[in-house]
Design a protein that fits this description.
The chain is an alpha/beta fold. The chain has a domain of about 220 residues: Rossmann fold. Helix content is about 40%, strand content about 10%. Strand 1, helix 1 and strand 2 form a beta-alpha-beta unit.
């Protein structure tokens, strides 16, 4: 049994990860900002200081985890309201991450698993599935902050001996999902016509249960030390296939219009939404062979099983 501290334990991925770690018999401590928000069975450590500014001083003397799984972050924001988004992302995703990692190292923590994002590498695959060593081309403040945090943590690990493990998921979906994936299900549920019938680009995704399983491996397997892993489902559907599958599981056949992708891109340019359109219909496949080769990891759930669980949750709320 390992002692594992999870930041962001009350979030979408955090809850799934804590539940799995508990089921595997590990002792799980959730570092949260509000009391009473932990999952059942998770020990709670409340640190309301913000960006881990008080974590070092508040760290309980008796708490010596084997590993920290760092999920808390400032995530990609659709309607950005920060005066300086670059600075806001850096404060939380880089400075605060380093502050937490340094405090963990001082308390004898052996391993630090950092949940980054494929956006730290690129928004598209350029025709070749993205490997971990692909030249970085982050396109927004969120992606740049995640890449900067990766680089800074790697240097910290080299200097101190703290085992750094970096995990880069693409889009994460599952019960309790929010943001664009939830909006897509809302549109299918309401019968909104979607101009995605000809969108044949493939997009890697990861079911939250698969990501939680990969994080559990990264937290406990000695072979993960010092590694960077891309994590995704085995299946890579096209955008149109994804929409049809969601419609089938929701019991609401998707209303797809076969609009040529070139027309959608033109509409994006005319409306100033080229980046959003490219993220929706552009190809983004990630190569997960490294984690399979090093850890022998295989996703325990298929994409169809993940979509079915997500649709079941959505239907239960409507």
């Amino acid at each position: 049994m390992s002692r594992i501290l999870v930041t962001g334990a009350n979030g979408f991925v955090g809850r799934a990860t804590c539940d799995l770690l508990l089921a595997q018999g590990h002792r799980v401590i959730g570092l949260v900002r509000r009391a009473g928000s932990r999952a059942s069975g998770v020990e709670e450590w409340v640190d309301a200081s913000g960006d881990f500014s008080g974590t070092d001083d508040a760290w309980p003397d008796a708490l010596v985890p084997d590993c920290v799984v760092h999920l808390a972050a400032r995530v990609h924001i659709m309607n950005e309201d920060a005066a300086d988004p670059e600075a806001a992302f850096r404060t939380t995703n880089v400075d605060a991450t380093l502050r937490l990692a340094a405090a963990a190292r001082q308390r004898g923590v052996r391993r630090f698993v950092f949940v980054s994002s494929v956006k730290a590498v690129a928004e598209g695959d350029g025709g070749i599935p993205l490997r971990e060593n692909a030249p970085p081309r982050p396109e927004d403040a969120y992606g740049r902050s995640k890449r900067a945090a990766e680089d800074a943590l790697t240097r910290l690990g080299n200097d101190t001996g703290l085992e750094i493990v970096i995990v880069r998921p693409p889009l994460v979906y599952g019960p309790q999902v929010r943001a664009n994936f939830l909006r897509l299900m809302d549109a299918i549920w309401r019968g909104v016509p979607l101009p995605l019938g000809a969108a044949d680009a493939r997009r890697s995704m990861v079911y939250v249960g698969n990501l939680a399983d990969a994080l559990a491996h990264c937290a406990t397997d000695p072979r993960a030390a010092g590694q960077c892993f891309h994590v995704a489902d085995s299946d890579v559907p096209t955008v149109a296939e994804l929409v049809r599958s969601l419609g089938r599981h929701l019991g609401k056949p998707a209303r797809l219009l076969s609009v040529p992708p070139a027309w959608l891109r033109m509409a994006g340019r005319l409306t100033g939404r080229s980046a959003q359109v490219d993220r929706l219909i552009g190809s983004l496949q990630v190569d997960t062979s490294h984690i399979r080769d090093v850890l022998g990891w295989q996703p325990p759930f298929s994409t169809d099983e993940g979509l079915a669980a997500t649709a079941d949750w959505y239907r239960s709320t409507h």
